[in-house]
Amino acid sequence: MSDPSQGLRIVPVRSSGVLSAHDVNLSIFNALWLVREGILEEADISIKETLFTPALIRIPTSTAELLILQDRIQLSFDPKLVQDAEPLLARVLGGIVAKLPQTPYSAVGLNSEFLVAPIDETKFEQWNRKQFGALFSATSNGSSDRFGCYLSTSQLEMQVRVECRPAR
Question: pLDDT by residue (tens digit) across 87-108?
Fold first, then answer.
């Protein structure tokens, strides 16, 4: 059996852990509380880049971005910067769940985005059509066409989403 990744360049772009919830109380979340509870580290929070509004909270750190909305809490990160995401996800998302168990959480999810391309750039258009565009390649023949794939599955009582987009 041949390796399907043979001859491919696979680049992880972004990954995230998501907690779905109902009526997240955004007023609880502020930089002081997050640091005091050990969820984020003080050195990671840049007050200039954080956004606190009644509708959403966005806190970028040196390795991740925490996004809090009324219906979800999401921690996104660049997999090239975070080699082992488990401790980060456990500290941030796990820490929030541990400190706020009364929040009605409904699901947890993991999302990953990858860019894939053939190692040989001259074969990109042919490879792209063969791998991703079988249904659509008959209707389009432009060299700028890009096709991709998306996988969404339920595993271990959680939703897993994988996106693959070709890029040069």
Answer: 999 999 999 999 999 999 998 8
